[in-house]
Write a structure and sequence with these properties.
The chain is of the alpha/beta class. It folds into 2 domains: 18-139 and 245-299, 2-enoyl-CoA Hydratase, Chain A, domain 1; 142-240, no CATH class. The protein has 11 helices and 9 strands. Strand 2 (78-85), helix 4 and strand 3 form a beta-alpha-beta unit. Helix 2 (25-41) packs antiparallel against helix 11 (266-285), helix 4 runs parallel beside helix 5 and helix 6 packs across helix 8. The protein is globular. Residues 1-11 have low confidence and may be disordered.
C-alpha cells in the first residue's frame, strides 16, 4: 500500500505552491530569460528598469538598498552586465551605484535596450563598454536645475541656460548704456548668486564625473580623449536639447567603446524579450522601478 505519492516515497514536496507559482509566473519567466542570456554571454546579468512615465522613476538615494541586493547576487570578481533603463536622476546617487558595482565586478558592461539618459549616461561612461542596437539611446549630461517660481510652479531648465540668461542681460545693459530693461526684473529676481553658483558647480560636477570614470576604465590611458568627450556631452551648444538622442553611431563617433548588436541576433532577441516584459509590467501595474537578477526580484 502506498502513501498516495508516486512510488510511495512519502509526501510530495514543493518549493512553491501551485497558486504562488501561478501568481509569480511573469517573474519566473523573466528570470528564465536572464539565465538564458547569462548562458550565452558567460556573464552575470542584473537589471535596473525604471518606468519612465512614473513620477518616481528617477535615480535616487532610495535605489541603493535594492541595488545592493542585486550586487550581492553576483560573486565578487564576476563580469557583470547591467541592463539599465532610466530617464536620469541624481548624479550623486548615480555615482554611488557605480562605486558599489565597480567594487564588486571585475568587468562591467552597460546594456541599453531603450534609453539610459542623463545620469544614466554617466553610469554608462563608468562602464568598460556599452552594448547598444538601433533601439538604444544615451543622452547629454548637462545638469538640469529645478526652481520654484513666485506662483509656486516648478520650472526646470539646463544649468547653462541660467548662466547664459544672465550674460544676455549683461550684454543688453551694455548696449543700452547701462540701462536695464524692466522686462528683466522678474528674471533677475530668480537669478540669485547662490543659484548661479550652484549651476556652475553642477556643470563642473557632471563633467568631472564623466572624465574621472572614463579615465579609470573605458578610456584608461587616454585622458585627453576622456576630457574631450566629457566636455562635448556636457555642452548645450553640441546638444541643444537635454532629450536629444545619442544613438550608437553618435556614441561610437564620440569615441566610446560601443558593442553594436544586430536586432535579429540571438543575444539581442533575448534582451529585447526581457525589455518588453519589463515594459509591460510597468505599463500595467504602475511599478516605478524593477530590480532583478536570476535570483533577486524587487518591484518598487
Amino acid at each position: 500500500m502506498t502513501n498516495g505519492t508516486p512510488g510511495g516515497e512519502g509526501p510530495a514536496k514543493y518549493s512553491r505552491s501551485p497558486l504562488f507559482e501561478a501568481i509569480h509566473q511573469p517573474r519566473y519567466h523573466r528570470q528564465q530569460i536572464i539565465r538564458e542570456i547569462e548562458a550565452e554571454t558567460g556573464r552575470r546579468l542584473i537589471a535596473y528598469f525604471a518606468n519612465i512615465n512614473h513620477p518616481q522613476s528617477s535615480i535616487g538615494a532610495g535605489d541603493v538598498t535594492p541595488f545592493q541586493d542585486l550586487i550581492l547576487d553576483c560573486s565578487r570578481g564576476a563580469d557583470i552586465d547591467l541592463l539599465l533603463q532610466t530617464p536620469g536622476g541624481d548624479i550623486d546617487a548615480a555615482e554611488k551605484l557605480v562605486y558599489m558595482l565597480r567594487e564588486r565586478a571585475r568587468a562591467m558592461r552597460l546594456i541599453v535596450t531603450d534609453r539610459a539618459k542623463s545620469a544614466g549616461t554617466l553610469i554608462a561612461l563608468a562602464s568598460d563598454s556599452i552594448l547598444m542596437s538601433p533601439t538604444s539611446e544615451l543622452g547629454p549630461i548637462d545638469p538640469q536645475i529645478t526652481i520654484t517660481q513666485p506662483d509656486g510652479k516648478q520650472l526646470t531648465r539646463p544649468a547653462q541656460s541660467f548662466l547664459d540668461g544672465l550674460e544676455q542681460i549683461k550684454l543688453d545693459v551694455a548696449r543700452n548704456h547701462g540701462q536695464l530693461n524692466p522686462a528683466y526684473f522678474p528674471l533677475l529676481n530668480q537669478l540669485d548668486p547662490a543659484l548661479l553658483d550652484y549651476c556652475s558647480k553642477a556643470m563642473t560636477r557632471s563633467r568631472e564625473f564623466a572624465e574621472k570614470w572614463l579615465c579609470q576604465h573605458m578610456l584608461s590611458g587616454e585622458p585627453d580623449k576622456a576630457k574631450q568627450i566629457s566636455e562635448r556631452l556636457g555642452s548645450v551648444e553640441a546638444y541643444r536639447s537635454h532629450g536629444m538622442v545619442i544613438d550608437y553611431h553618435e556614441a561610437a563617433k564620440l569615441g566610446l567603446k560601443v558593442d553594436v548588436q544586430d536586432i535579429e541576433s540571438s543575444l539581442w532577441q533575448k534582451l529585447w524579450k526581457l525589455h518588453a516584459s519589463y515594459d509591460l509590467i510597468c505599463r500595467t501595474s504602475g511599478t516605478a522601478k524593477l530590480f532583478e537578477s536570476a535570483k533577486v526580484s524587487l518591484a518598487i
